[in-house]
């Protein structure tokens, strides 16, 4: 005897909630991440929603929430019920003050506050202290914030900071005791010194200096760094290639375009792990052959009208195991070292490309 068992396949609860929200508000929630039918990330846009739907608290596994352009002045109190929330991104939301509701979500790891447009009401002050044992990153962009909070965290790998177009005037002295993994500084015109952002030095892996504003270049702090893996020093007015770079032998990516230095020492050979080197628009005329002997360097950008030829020392180097793409300003064949052909250069693993 054959028994047929009829069972109704139920839609995952998160999917049911999603449909209910979309129908109720005649809008569409944007899913940014999911695990199967379980929703773990959401984006709420102001062109679709004028409020934060309370039904969102039903997404029990929600970890990442972005609120973009929604005209609210505070977060709903029920946001505290999102016990798994790890990351929140606030973009162009006219908050009168920092959302205190977030202080009660112990699982938070990432904060991002961004103001892309001019808002009369935007967060101007952060709490004096933030207590998050798993804190990993703070991103502040285009805000009138003047002071950074003191931090209490236990994250072993360190914290990441981005400060872009803020009114911050100083980095608290306490930050020297923090394990800071990376930081980005971009156009903070009231911030003269950033040395405290280097933290304990040994944990620092990535530093990006973009538009300088009025920031003083922290040369002495850089001299205490030995573990950098990514360094971005574009348009920093550097008249000499910084010696501290040579001591960071774990460096993998270096961006040092649009500076005024004329020479690089043979010590560049110490950067055996370097994979990418951006070095366009400098005052260099000759390149040291040691650059071309770096075993892992696969991307080299030397767009510069002053550089006419690659060094002839390349002829004596062994064939590369990792091909090197070399981006230049003019016709690639014009850069071939004297005594070599373009084909011979290619056979050695050096590929000249015109950068467009």
Structure notes:
With 356 residues, the chain is mainly beta. Among the domains are: 11-123, Ribonuclease Inhibitor (Leucine-rich repeat, LRR (right-handed beta-alpha superhelix)), CATH 3.80.10; 250-356, Ribonuclease Inhibitor (Leucine-rich repeat, LRR (right-handed beta-alpha superhelix)). The protein is 8% helix and 22% strand. The protein is built from four helices and 17 strands. Strands 1-2-3-4-5-7-9-10-11-12-13-14-15-16-17 form a 15-stranded mixed β-sheet. A two-stranded parallel ribbon has the order 6-8. It is elongated, with a radius of gyration of 26 Å. Residues 3-10 have low confidence and may be disordered. This is Leucine-rich repeat domain-containing protein. InterPro entries: LRR_dom_sf, LRR_domain-containing.
